[in-house]
Design brief:
The chain is an alpha/beta fold. Strand 6, helix 6 and strand 7 form a beta-alpha-beta unit. Helix 9 packs parallel to helix 11 and helix 9 runs antiparallel to helix 12. The longest helix is centred in the middle third of the chain and has 17 residues. The radius of gyration is 17 Å and the shape is globular.
Length: 264
């Protein structure tokens, strides 16, 4: 790994080997998602607790302060929306020149293994890796499932993650599942956990994040369970404790409640 690649990886993964990515890229296929209508305002109180921001170029340019930003992972795939025929029908949407111009620490794109567009998204990943390696820019592959949430089991996700790593991704974002160690054990690059649908309780969030880290994940890329929450700062701080301070779910829940009560 050359100096530039090492330097950029160190920007998004902290010295303890862990990371907390804050994704606000949902609008590229969902439009103005609830509580993310004004993304710059949404993240102001919580950005300081994140290690990196996962965002599209449009929101980056128009809503993120370039002076006070965290390291940026740029979403570079898209082309379909939630009302379209198939969310898996994605292409690369951002040029290498644009990636360099925006001075990002890494880029991220989705792959849809097992879908009609599997080959298209996997060859897109390979092409992106080819270009980004020339400039020392890490690629994060996102093992997306579109609307088919039932696919999120260890057998399927371990296949997705291994394929992404084989094609050159430096980091893989995937969903937590039962027997998550089967996913991490079969992937030779770092794995971060996706947040997925909003959970019913705070403790559920802390539990799956804690379990995933105990079983080999280096951190999370978690958005809706934070910025759609009534108490986003409390959620960020509690999750930060799980990721970087080895807090248990019970300890994180206590941190959450303490901060929540102070903000009432």
């Amino acid at each position: 790994m050359d100096w530039g690649m090492k330097n950029r990886m160190a920007q998004i993964i902290k010295p303890d080997g862990k990371c907390f990515f804050l994704p606000i890229d949902h609008g590229y296929f969902l439009g103005p998602t609830s509580r993310l209508e004004r993304p710059g305002e949404t993240i102001k109180p919580i950005l300081s607790y994140a290690d990196a921001l996962f965002v599209t170029r449009g929101v980056l340019r128009n809503a993120i302060d370039p002076v006070k930003s965290k390291p940026v992972i740029l979403r570079v795939s898209g082309g379909s929306s939630v009302i379209g025929e198939d969310l898996a029908n994605e292409e690369l949407t951002t040029s290498m020149e644009e990636i360099i111009r925006l001075n990002v620490s890494a880029v991220g794109m989705s792959i849809f293994v097992g879908s009609k567009y599997e080959k298209q998204t996997l060859t897109n990943l390979a092409a992106l890796v080819d270009e980004c390696e020339n400039y020392g820019i890490p690629v994060m592959a996102v093992t997306a499932v579109g609307k088919e949430l039932a696919k999120r089991d260890a057998r399927y996700l371990s296949l997705c993650c291994r394929v992404a790593a084989e094609l050159g991704a430096r980091v893989v974002k995937t969903y937590w599942c039962e027997d998550f160690d089967k996913v991490t054990n079969g992937c030779p690059v770092p794995i971060v956990i996706a947040g997925g649908p909003k959970c019913k309780t705070e403790l559920q969030v802390f539990e799956f994040v804690y379990d995933g880290i105990q079983k080999g994940a280096i951190g999370v890329n978690l958005g809706r369970n934070v910025w759609q929450h009534k108490y986003p700062v409390a959620m960020m701080r509690a999750l930060h404790a799980v990721i970087h301070k080895k807090a248990t779910p019970k300890e994180a829940d206590e941190i959450f409640k303490e901060i929540k009560n102070k903000t009432k």
